[in-house]
Amino acid sequence: MLRIYSILFMASLLLLASCQSYQPAFVLSLHEFEEPQVVTNLTRTVRDPTRQFSHTIRKLSFLDARNFLFGELYGPNDQGRYGLRIQVERWHLATMNQTAGTNLGMVYAVIVDGMYVGYSHFNKSMRDTNVLEIEPIWSLRDAQMILDSIPKNYKHFNNWHKGFFE
After folding, report:
1. In terms of pLDDT, which residue wins out, 25 or 91?
2. pLDDT tens-place string over residues 34-58
3. What CATH fold (topology level) applies to the domain 26-157?
């Protein structure tokens, strides 16, 4: 009898926890393209949303949703596309500055929820500041949805210590 109550109690706790948990959405990650287009254990192939083109990128991102604090929109450009300026947390500034410094002018892949959405260039401002500037590749609606999810995703992916030190 005690076993049945303990199972019911654990099931109710799991149900309660799942109702209140945040499901990450519009998870942004930045990856270096892999040249030549050879798939290995360290690379993976991604497709654009229309599934017309595939690109080989490094599996490990150099920056991702765990590193982005908040952002702002800028644009539109001539095609009506918007870009993002994203504040990078201080623990990963060196990664961004060094990657941008060694790859200045080269392109990197922009991935949202595992799908290739476009590319942007390593620019000088990434090497010298704590703001990541992604070129205009989104519609206003998509850019705003990504922007709204940045702080939520940061909090979700960086809560490993929640309850650990308390």
Report:
1. 25
2. 876 677 889 998 888 788 888 899 9
3. Gyrase A; domain 2 (3.30.1360)
Q: Retrieve residue 46's tokens.
A: 């991604």
Whole-number CA gyration radius for the chain: 19
Decide which of 25 and 49 is more confident. 25
Using the 8-state DSSP alphabet, how is residue 74 labeled? E
CA distances from 110 to 4, 11, 115, 127 (A): 49, 39, 8, 18
pTM: 0.79
- Tell me how far apart the alpha carbons of residues 44 and 61 are, in angstroms, rounded to a whole number: 11
Domain ranges of the chain: 26-157
Out of 6-10, 46-50, 81-85, 120-124, which region has the weakest mean confidence (pLDDT)? 6-10
Dihedral (CA of 152, 156, 161, 165) sign: positive
Residues 14 and 7 sit within 8 Å (Cβ to Cβ): no
Burial 94-112 (b: 16+ CB within 10 A, else e): eebbebbeebeeeebbbbb
Cis peptide before 76 (omega within 30 of 0): yes
